[in-house]
Every structure is written in structure tokens, then in C-alpha cells.
Amino acid sequence: MAAYALLGHAVWVDLRVREIPDWVSLGLLVLAVLNGAATHWASLACGVLIYLLFFFLWSVGVVGGGDVKLIAATSLFFIPYEQLIFLLNVGLAGGVLAMLYLFGRNRLPIVSKRITKIRVLRVESWRIRRGMPLPYAVAIAVGFIMTTLWGEW
After folding, report:
1. Do residues 19 and 57 make contact, with C-beta atoms less than 8 angstroms apart?
2. Confidence of residue 18 (pLDDT cuts 50, 70, 90)
3. What are the residue ranges of helices labelled H in 18-118?
4. Dihedral over Cα of 27, 30, 35, 36: its sign
5. CA geometry: angle 141, 144, 146, nearest 5 deg
6. CA 125, CA 123: separation in Å to the nearest integer?
7. What mean pLDDT is predicted for residues 22-45?
8. Residue 125 near residue 111 (C-beta atoms within 8 A)
9. Is 87:95 a contact under the CB 8 Å cutoff?
């Protein structure tokens, strides 16, 4: 439950300011170690490989630095086979998120202060219409939830 709470906070902050606090990733890392999966050498090795892969993607400008740390920390909750399922689930959730943003780009109406008092919704609709970067913490959190709740489908 603590991991879900930390991921929920990461999603909220990513939606608001497009940043993921470092302490969230660090907290998830600590929880993964306490959970026991991160103490297995194969899980650690795969977690390092995931980090290096996403670090490369960050270096070429594909993903954000907070996303790199968040996905590496959350991958440590799983054994190597489950880490592959986790990455697949994150990719599927990211694909759905990207399709929603692409679909809404030219179709989303302008949201005014009169319609909604929730600033996050107004700002997010503005970002969608202008093709701004995705809040990928949403996809990481959905992938994590799918993997932990459904396991191996």
C-alpha cells in the first residue's frame, strides 16, 4: 500500500509540474529492498539493466530523468520474469496514454475558469492541445498496478 501511495503522489506531481520528486523514487527503492525482491541478485541485475536502458533513452531526450529513476525503482519489486511483464504493462499503458493525448490534441475544447476550478485540468488540457510531453508517471503507475494485481495474466 505504501508503494501505491508513493506512486499516487508521483502521478499527482507529474501531472501538476511534470517532475517526479527524487524522494519518491528513493522511497520506492527502500520499500523494494524491505519487500525482499530487490535483494535477489538477478532482480538487481535486471533493475540495473532497466536503469541503463532508460538512462540511454533520457540521454537522447526520449524520457525524463524522473521517469528513469521511477521505473528503475519500481522494477525492483519484481523478479526478472515479472520485470519483463512490468515493462510490457508500462509500455501498453504509455501507448494508451499517448493515444488519448494524440486524440485530444485537436478535439479538446478550451477549458475556462468558469467551467472548472481545478487548475490541473485546465493546464493539462492546454498541454494536450499544444502537444506537450506526457506525464509518464501515470503509465508507470498503471503498469505497476497491473503487474501487482494481475500478475501473469
Report:
1. no
2. confident
3. 22-35, 41-59, 65-75, 80-105
4. positive
5. 110
6. 5
7. 87
8. yes
9. no
Q: How big is the CA angle at 127 (ends 122 and 133), to the nearest 5 degrees?
A: 140
**In angstroms, rounded to a whole number, what is the distance separating the alpha carbons of residues 45 and 38?**
9
Q: How far apart are the first and last CA of the chain?
A: 21
Give 4's contacts (C-beta < 8 A, 6+ positions apart).
Answer: 145
What letter represents residue 96's amino acid?
A: V
Name residues whose C-beta falls within 8 Å of residue 109's C-beta, 6 or more positions apart in sequence: 125
Match 509540474 to its residue by C-alpha cell.
Answer: 17
Q: Cα–Cα distance between 100 and 122 in angstroms, integer?
A: 16
Please give the Cα distance from 137 to 139 (Å, whole number). Answer: 5
How long, in residues, is the chain?
A: 153
- Kind and range of the H or E run holding 9: helix 2-17
Q: What is the mean pLDDT of the chain?
A: 85
Residue 51: other Cβ atoms inside 10 A: 17
